[in-house]
C-alpha cells in the first residue's frame, strides 16, 4: 500500500473515475466505502461514483461526495447534435444535485486564467452565461420564469494578487447566493479524456490541484453554501504519459511483470529537470475548450432555468 500511496501522490488526476482505476490497479481489489453506477446514452456514458466514508476519502485522495463522470469521445468534434445530447445528460444530473425550487440565486464561478487557453474553460463558460439577477430588479416581467443567476471569473492569484477563494467569499457575503456552480479545467491521467470528459461533483473544488499549484478550497465548508463543481480535463502530466507508455511496453513484452515502483523511479529521473511538473496539452486545445464550454453552458442553462421552453433558451445562448 505504501508503494501505491507514493505513486498516487506523484501521478495525480482530478477525475474520481481515474483515481478509482489507479487504486484498483495498485491494490487489485475493490474499494471499501465507494459505490459505482453506470449509465449509457446515445452519445455518452455516465459513471456515478460515491465516496461515502473517511477511509474511502483517504484511499481515493478525494473528499466525500458524489462524482458524476460523463464520457463523450465525440465531444472533441464540433457537432451540434452531440453537444446538445451531452448537454441534456449534464442538465439532468445537475438538476438532481441542485434541487432548485425557483426562488434561489445561483452564482456561477469561472475558475482559471483567461490568458492561458488550457486554463480558460471557466472564464469561457462565464462569458457566455445567461445572466438574469439584475433583471429581477429592473425588468422583473421579462424574467418571470427564469432563475436569478449571476457570474464571475475571478482570475488567478498571479494576475490579481488575491486568492480566488477570498474574492469568491467577498461576493458570496454581498450577493448571498443559495448555491455556487464552479467551472474549472482539470488534469487527467489519460490523454483520450482531454476535452471529451465532464465531471460533476457536489463536494466543491480545489483550484490548481491537478497541476501541482493547489490553492484554497472552494466548498460548503469555506463558502457557507453548497458548491457544485464542473470540470473538463485539458492537460495531462507528462509523467503520466511516460508511465502509460512504459506500462504498455512492459505489458506487451514482459507480460506486465515489472513493478510500478521501478517505472515511477525511471519517470522521476527523466523529468527531473522539470521537477515533475511538465504538463502537456493538445494543439487543438482551442477547439476542445470551445466545444466543452458550449456544452457545459447549455447544460447549466437548461438545469437552472427549468420553467423556460428549450427553444427560448437556445435562442438566448
Automatic annotation (TrEMBL):
Reactions catalysed: Endopeptidase action with P4 Glu or Asp, P1 preferably Glu > Asp, P1' hydrophobic and P2' Ala
Record PTM: Autoproteolytically processed. The inactive tetrameric zymogen termed p46 autoprocesses to a smaller form termed p41, which is active only during spore germination.
Superkingdom in the source lineage: Bacteria
Its EC number(s): 3.4.24.78
Stored Pfam families: Peptidase_A25
Function: Initiates the rapid degradation of small, acid-soluble proteins during spore germination.
Family under the similarity heading: Belongs to the peptidase A25 family.
Protein name: Germination protease
Protein source organism: Syntrophaceticus schinkii
Gene (name only): gpr
Amino acid at each position: 500500500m505504501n508503494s501505491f500511496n507514493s505513486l498516487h501522490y506523484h501521478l495525480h488526476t482530478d477525475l474520481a473515475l481515474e483515481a478509482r482505476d489507479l487504486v484498483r490497479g495498485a491494490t487489485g481489489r475493490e474499494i471499501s466505502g465507494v459505490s459505482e453506477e453506470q449509465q449509457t446514452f446515445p452519445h455518452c456514458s455516465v459513471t456515478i461514483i460515491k465516496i461515502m466514508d473517511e477511509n474511502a476519502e483517504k484511499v481515493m485522495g478525494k473528499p466525500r461526495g458524489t462524482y458524476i463522470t460523463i464520457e463523450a469521445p465525440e465531444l472533441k468534434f464540433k457537432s451540434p447534435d452531440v453537444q446538445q445530447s451531452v448537454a441534456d445528460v449534464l442538465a439532468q444530473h445537475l438538476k438532481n444535485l441542485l434541487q432548485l425550487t425557483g426562488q434561489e440565486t445561483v452564482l456561477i464561478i469561472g475558475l482559471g486564467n483567461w490568458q492561458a487557453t488550457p486554463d480558460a474553460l471557466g472564464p469561457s463558460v462565464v462569458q457566455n452565461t445567461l445572466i438574469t439577477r439584475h433583471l429581477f430588479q429592473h425588468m422583473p416581467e421579462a424574467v418571470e420564469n427564469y432563475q436569478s443567476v449571476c457570474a464571475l471569473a475571478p482570475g488567478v492569484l498571479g494576475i490579481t494578487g488575491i486568492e480566488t477563494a477570498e474574492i469568491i467569499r467577498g461576493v458570496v457575503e454581498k450577493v448571498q447566493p443559495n448555491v455556487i456552480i464552479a467551472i474549472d479545467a482539470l488534469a487527467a491521467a489519460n490523454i483520450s479524456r482531454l476535452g471529451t470528459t465532464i465531471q460533476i461533483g457536489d463536494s466543491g473544488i480545489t483550484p490548481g490541484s491537478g497541476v501541482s499549484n493547489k490553492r484554497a478550497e472552494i466548498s460548503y465548508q469555506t463558502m457557507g453554501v453548497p458548491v457544485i463543481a464542473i470540470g473538463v480535463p485539458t492537460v495531462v502530466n507528462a509523467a503520466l504519459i511516460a508511465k502509460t507508455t512504459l506500462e504498455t511496453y512492459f505489458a506487451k513484452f514482459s507480460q506486465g511483470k515489472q513493478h510500478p515502483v521501478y517505472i515511477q523511479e525511471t519517470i522521476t529521473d527523466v523529468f527531473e529537470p522539470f521537477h515533475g511538473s511538465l504538463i502537456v496539452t493538445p494543439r487543438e486545445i482551442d477547439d476542445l475548450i470551445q466545444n466543452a464550454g458550449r456544452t457545459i453552458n447549455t447544460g447549466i442553462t437548461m438545469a437552472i432555468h427549468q420553467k423556460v421552453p428549450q427553444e427560448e433558451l437556445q435562442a438566448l445562448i
